[in-house]
């Protein structure tokens, strides 16, 4: 078990993995695996298991998930964004997110960018650049840039610090108590 | 020592009176939804300044939390986060609840070790620990009260909306933060009001109503939203027991809700009288918990209104693989089932076990089908024994398990193998939810599941009701 936290840089480049609507948390990491470990690196081995049990072996560090509506629906499992982040995914860009997944992604420091206009604009394997400081996604192949929906400043700050735990370690308080 | 009725105690009373007036102003504001009222009341600023601060849909507010729960698949991660942050003391252990329910009793050593971690944490911090009842059912039976702010690291925490509480799912690390400070940020959701009219036909139940609704609005049809349920009159209201309301509030999660609330009425008042809520404070003062009945204002603004006529609903079957693929049962008859599962937090209450037992009484489970029955709590289990249901199930050839989330999440006590088909009263039918990725789950009411257990294929419960 490694204790090294993964902190995603503000600009990341990677290949697009394109999914459709309603990718739920049971697809992202099934219960029977996530409930038997407390180690994020172990959780990563089951990232997107419901889509392809070998997904974690096929992706490269920095790759980006592109999805349709309601990404992350279902369970409250924080292990879902954790598994994606520790498998090497640097951001999830979706037309919309399910409520708890969205909260959890910011909490654990995985950029979750909501961009309804992304639909049909990214092909599987496209080279992408995600800039979390500017909240934009660029499709390097087409030169198109997409701006993500704004989130409150305290969430942006938490994300850039690497999530709630890292934020707390740094400032000894929770970000919303300042806003 | 002489007891003196000091001026300070009357002053305190006076202040408490003042305290109530700013809350009363919020409660009496006719322009507010349930969500706007309760979040305005729970706003940390409202408490600090003792003034009437009104917040509305879309506002982000820091609230005081009355109860924060984590279970055995989310609690260990909450504890891990606390450890990483170096936090060693909780804001108020009496408001922290740990429940070991999902893989209870432990199915293997990995789970056993995580359970041990939770027990050690609960013992060290003196917080509530429950083993062997599903968290949502335990909260309903003992802890949830009108006007409470309840957050839990489990999506179906929203079930407690059935008693007029604000109840919503959050993540593990957020629960860790609530345990640390007693507070969290919330965005006030927009509200969809659902007006219920009509009387259910034979063989149709609360689960059919909510599956039918989700089939119409879709898997994200109420994402981020509050649902407020309203009955058109007393006759309509009276067909929705607490168990039925709990089913609806719980299953509302499957269209993405933040909360799903039944404002307090005679049915919930009676339930709370019969199952009184006691304070759980460290001084062992077993007093009745303060309850605040919050009713939405007459001129509140709703994002949408939706009409449900119970008489138009048929027995429904959802799936496979997606909740919002909803059929009338007669469209799927003849789909053979390997397993029929009756239970879970969605439909494992005594009312559910009664309906299914009535159907299975004197009949046998089909030879090609396994029937697994799982009560939602120890109390439901005890009731089922007392009322003779367990005997009926066993005589019919079903397996009756302890209370757990086991089969629903495919972790033990009813997991599915390759290509197996299950009809289930549990919460979800996502790919691989109950086991193998190639297995398929159809969701239905306990009545439809029981009828299907008998026939070995998806079957219309109206033949048995």
Features:
heterodimer, A: 179 residues, alpha/beta, Aconitase, domain 4, seven-stranded mixed sheet, 18% strand, globular, B: 465 residues, Aconitase, domain 3, Aconitase, Domain 2, 3 domains, five-stranded parallel sheet, 16 helices, 35% helix, 17% strand, disordered N terminus
Low-confidence residue ranges of chain A = none
Please give the count of helices of chain A. 8
Radius of gyration based on Cα positions of chain B: 22 Å
Q: Biggest sheet of chain A, open or closed, and with what strands and sense?
A: 7 strands, mixed
- C-alpha-based Rg of chain A, rounded: 15 Å
Arrangement of strands in the largest sheet of chain A: 4-3-2-1-5-6-7
SS-based structural class of chain A? alpha/beta
Please state the oligomeric state of the protein chains shown: heterodimer
Q: What is the level 1 CATH name of the largest domain in chain B?
A: Alpha Beta
Q: Can you write the helix and strand succession of chain A as a string?
A: EHHHHEHEHEEEEHH
Quick check: average pLDDT of chain A? 96
The CATH C-level class name of chain A: Alpha Beta
Question: What report would you give on this structure?
Answer:
The complex is a heterodimer of chains A (179) and B (465). Chain A contains eight helices and seven strands, in the order E-H-H-H-H-E-H-E-H-E-E-E-E-H-H. Chain A has helices at 25-28, 31-34, 40-44, 55-58, 79-87, 99-108, 153-160, 164-171, and strands spanning 11-18, 64-67, 91-94, 112-114, 127-131, 136-139, 144-147. The radius of gyration of chain A is 15 Å and the shape is globular. The model of chain A has no long low-confidence stretch (mean pLDDT 96). The relative contact order of chain B is 0.13. Chain B is globular. Chain B contains 16 helices and 18 strands. Chain B has three domains: 67-186, 2-Layer Sandwich (Aconitase, domain 3); 190-279 and 302-313, Aconitase, Domain 2 (3-Layer(aba) Sandwich), CATH 3.40.1060.10; 316-463, 2-Layer Sandwich (Aconitase, domain 3). In chain B, strand 2, helix 4 (75-85) and strand 3 (96-100) form a beta-alpha-beta unit. Residues 1-17 of chain B have low confidence and may be disordered. Chain B is α/β, with parallel strands linked by helices and 465 residues long. In chain B, the strands form five sheets. In chain B, strands 4-3-2-5-6 form a five-stranded parallel sheet, covered by helices on one side. A five-stranded parallel sheet of chain B has the order 16-15-14-17-18. The chains are: A alpha/beta (179), B alpha/beta (465).
């Amino acid at each position: 078990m490694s204790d090294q936290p993964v902190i995603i840089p503000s600009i990341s480049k990677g290949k697009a993995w394109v999914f459709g609507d309603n990718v739920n948390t049971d697809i992202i990491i099934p219960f029977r695996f996530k409930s038997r470990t407390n180690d994020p690196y172990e959780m990563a081995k089951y990232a997107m298991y419901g889509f392809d049990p070998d997904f974690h072996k096929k992706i490269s560090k920095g790759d980006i998930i592109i999805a349709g509506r309601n990404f992350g629906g279902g369970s409250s499992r924080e292990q879902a964004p954790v598994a994606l982040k520790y498998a090497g995914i640097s951001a999830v860009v979706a037309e919309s997110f399910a409520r708890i997944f969205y909260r959890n992604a910011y909490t654990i420091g995985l950029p979750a960018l909501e961009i309804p206009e992304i639909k049909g604009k990214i092909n599987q394997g496209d080279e992408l650049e995600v800039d979390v400081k500017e909240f934009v996604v660029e499709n390097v192949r087409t030169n198109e840039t997409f701006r993500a929906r704004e989130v409150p400043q305290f969430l942006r700050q938490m994300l850039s610090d690497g999530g709630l735990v890292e934020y707390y370690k740094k400032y000894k308080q929770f970000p919303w108590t300042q806003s | 020592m002489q007891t003196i009725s000091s001026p300070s105690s009357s002053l305190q009373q006076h202040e408490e009176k003042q305290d109530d007036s700013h809350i009363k102003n919020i409660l009496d504001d006719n322009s507010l939804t349930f969500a706007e009222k309760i979040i305005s009341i729970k706003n940390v600023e409202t408490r600090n300044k003792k003034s009437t601060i009104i917040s509305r849909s879309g506002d982000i507010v820091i609230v005081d939390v009355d109860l924060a729960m984590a279970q055995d698949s989310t609690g260990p991660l909450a504890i891990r986060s606390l450890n990483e942050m170096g936090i060693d003391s909780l804001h108020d252990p009496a408001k922290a609840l740990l429940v070991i329910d999902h893989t209870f009793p432990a199915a293997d050593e990995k789970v056993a070790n995580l359970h041990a971690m939770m027990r050690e944490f609960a013992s060290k911090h003196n917080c509530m620990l429950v083993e062997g009842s599903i968290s949502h059912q335990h909260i309903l039976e003992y802890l949830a009260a009108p006007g409470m702010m309840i957050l839990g690291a489990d999506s179906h925490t929203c079930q407690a909306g059935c008693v007029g509480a604000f109840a919503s799912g959050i993540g593990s690390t957020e629960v860790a933060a609530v345990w640390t400070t007693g507070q969290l940020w919330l965005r006030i959701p927009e509200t969809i009001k659902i007006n219920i009219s009509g009387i259910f036909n034979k063989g149709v139940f609360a689960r059919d109503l909510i599956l039918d609704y989700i089939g119409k609005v879709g898997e994200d049809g109420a994402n981020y939203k509050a649902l407020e349920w309203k009955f058109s009159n007393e006759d309509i209201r009276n067909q929705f027991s607490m168990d039925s309301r709990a089913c609806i509030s719980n299953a509302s999660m499957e269209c993405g809700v933040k909360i799903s609330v039944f404002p307090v009425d005679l049915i919930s008042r009676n339930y709370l009288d019969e199952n009184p809520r006691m304070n759980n404070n460290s001084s062992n003062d077993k007093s009745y918990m303060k309850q605040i009945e919050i009713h939405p204002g007459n001129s509140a603004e709703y994002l949408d209104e939706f009409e449900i006529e119970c008489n138009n609903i048929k027995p429904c079957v959802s799936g496979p693989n997606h909740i919002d693929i909803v059929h009338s049962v007669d469209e799927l008859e003849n789909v053979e089932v390997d397993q029929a599962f009756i239970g879970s937090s969605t439909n494992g209450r005594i009312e559910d076990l009664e309906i299914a037992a009535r159907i299975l009484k004197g009949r046998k489970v089909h030879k090609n089908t396994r029937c697994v029955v799982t009560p939602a709590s120890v109390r439901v289990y005890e009731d089922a024994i007392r009322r003779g249901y367990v005997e009926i199930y066993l005589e019919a050839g079903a397996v009756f398990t302890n209370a757990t989330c086991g089969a629903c999440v495919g972790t033990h006590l009813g997991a599915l193998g390759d290509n197996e088909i299950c009809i289930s009263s549990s919460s979800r039918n996502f790919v691989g939810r109950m086991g193998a990725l190639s297995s398929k789950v159809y969701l239905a009411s306990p009545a439809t599941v029981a009828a299907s257990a008998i026939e070995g294929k998806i079957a219309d419960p109206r033949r048995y009701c």
